[in-house]
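ok so I'm stuck.
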Amino acid sequence: MQRKHNNQNQAIALVGLITFVQDLKKDEPLLGLWKQDLAEGLLWERGIWDEPAPRKRIAPFPSWTWMGLPGAVQYPSFRLTSKRIELIHPRICWSQVEFDSSLEIAELLLRAKVLKGTLTYHGRESSQPSLYVDMGGSSKIPLFERVDIPDSYYDNTTVQLILIGGTERHWFFLIASNIVNPERNPYVRIGRAYSPCDRAFKKLEEYFATVDSQILTLR
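replied:
not stuck anymore, here's the structure
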């Protein structure tokens, strides 16, 4: 009974804090992210501190929020000068009281450009997996990546790269897997990535200029 009471107090305190920040920002909260800064917010990453990478997400939070990932996380220190995603509609529904009942729906309906990529694992004792944008044929461009939950199943895995936006030097993407469902086209976040600061920046821009935006669901 005491533990349940403590959880209720924590939920009340969390809702109070969110409401306080919401009044300051004049913005809509989205499970740890904010509607007006959604592009930057989606680019959070697992903390760089020397701690073991988590192997399991926290249910029932969706993949797109840091609230579903155990351990430290950090936000980007930059502002995007070009934002390439559009939030069409957020769907976040609790069974009863916010943060003190079961989370029934938590997804974002977005419009964005999606590129195909390949993620390859090199072993936990070596480096992080390598990521490439597949540009047709044998043409590909490497990206710097940081996956949320590294594991050995990233072995020449086909992934989707959701274009979030860019600065004057880099393009930023969400790395996602696509759950096969032709009606709703849902995606699950795997991590984030950014382009090298070289000629790849311009080549990528020219390439995704030929790619049409699509409507997708991020879960």
